[in-house]
Automatic annotation (TrEMBL):
Membrane topology of this protein: Multi-pass membrane protein
PANTHER family attached to this UniProt entry: EAMA DOMAIN-CONTAINING PROTEIN (PTHR42920:SF5), OS03G0707200 PROTEIN-RELATED (PTHR42920)
UniProt key word Transmembrane: yes
Transmembrane segments: 21-40, 46-67, 79-99, 105-125, 132-152, 158-177, 189-208, 228-248, 260-277, 283-299
EamA domain location: 21-148, 158-296
Protein name (Swiss-Prot/TrEMBL): EamA domain-containing protein
Keywords: Cell membrane, Membrane, Transmembrane, Transmembrane helix
A cellular component term, taken from the record's GO annotations: plasma membrane
Length: 308
């Protein structure tokens, strides 16, 4: 498999886990983000919530990394801004998608990133991924199918299509981070700041147009303690922490490996539903959870062997 992500030596299992564990933690908080987003977002507040979600953490990033931010080259600014545009598309698609479809369908469809990424990487590099890796990804997706059977399936909707497009956009984002040379060699904190700044600028421009829903200011004034707690969780953990770790990990591993680990997100979404919302997955759901864990573990070992 291609080493475009400039991985460090992943031959040692301990070094591999040092990279994998933060990525798995990202999958955990992203899984919990479904409940958080549904708790504070409606059809009319999608853009407003996105503006607030990014704006909460952006000033902190700018202050913390001002010196290194000023040191970025023009190429690094352009690369990070391009990633920010892709990122804004991901969040628009995902947030509108979750609002307009069931959590079951959303969790299943977004997990297709696990399949799209190695296939896209193979198409770009002209190097086919190992069959074992594809089999591991297929096993994980089969697990997601079982895991999400408890809620049943609905007729494909606009929301389903938006989640499918979001999965494709996630694939583009991961590959772009590994292929833009300026991004690969620059400071992660500064690049994260520019990326999130570009995204919030896109959301702010959209919010300025009439007919795009409630304004960020009006939405913020309507928020109570519970809504603010959900927004802080989405901002600090699901946005700042998650994308900083993703940018850090993709340069030390491969896009396919990072995507496979992030693909456990539906498993953690189900865990959050069980613990916080009282969901009951049943026997099929538990079997699916086992398959997701088995598939991602197998795929991680396959990626290790291929990177040696």
């Amino acid at each position: 498999m291609s080493s475009l992500a400039a991985p460090v030596s992943l031959g040692a299992p301990r070094r591999a886990w040092l990279t994998d564990l933060p990525v798995l933690l990202v999958a955990v908080v992203w899984g919990a983000s479904y409940l958080a987003a549904k708790g504070i977002t409606t059809t009319h507040t999608v853009i407003a919530v996105l503006v607030l979600r990014f704006a909460v953490v952006l000033p902190v990033l700018v202050v913390a990394g001002w010196r290194k931010l000023r040191a970025l080259t023009a190429a690094q600014w352009r690369g990070a801004a391009a990633l920010g545009l892709i990122l804004s598309g991901i969040f628009l698609l995902e947030t509108y998608g979750v609002v307009h479809t069931s959590a079951t369908n959303a969790g299943l469809i977004i997990s297709l990133t696990m399949i799209f990424t190695p296939l896209a990487e193979a198409a770009v590099t002209k190097v086919s991924p190992p069959r074992a890796f594809l089999a591991a990804a297929a096993l994980s997706v089969a697990g997601v199918v079982l895991l999400t059977q408890g809620g049943g399936f609905t007729t494909p909707s606009l929301g389903d299509l938006l989640m499918l497009l979001a999965a494709l956009a996630r694939t583009v984002h991961v590959l772009a981070m590994s292929r833009i040379k300026a991004v690969r060699s620059a400071d992660s904190l500064s690049l994260t700041t520019v990326q999130l700044g570009s995204a919030v600028a896109v959301f702010a421009v959209i919010a300025a147009f009439p007919g795009t829903g409630a304004s960020p200011w009006a939405t913020a004034l309507d928020f109570g303690p519970r809504e603010w707690a959900g927004l802080v969780f989405l901002s600090v953990f699901c946005t700042l922490f998650a994308f900083f770790v993703q940018m850090w990990a993709v340069r030390r591993s491969s896009p396919s490996r990072v995507s496979l680990l992030l693909g456990t997100e539906p498993l953690w979404a189900a865990a959050a539903g069980i613990a916080l919302a009282g969901d009951r997955p049943g026997v099929l759901g538990l079997a699916g959870a086992v398959l997701v864990l088995a598939g991602t573990t197998w795929g991680r070992r396959t990626a290790d062997e291929d990177a040696r």
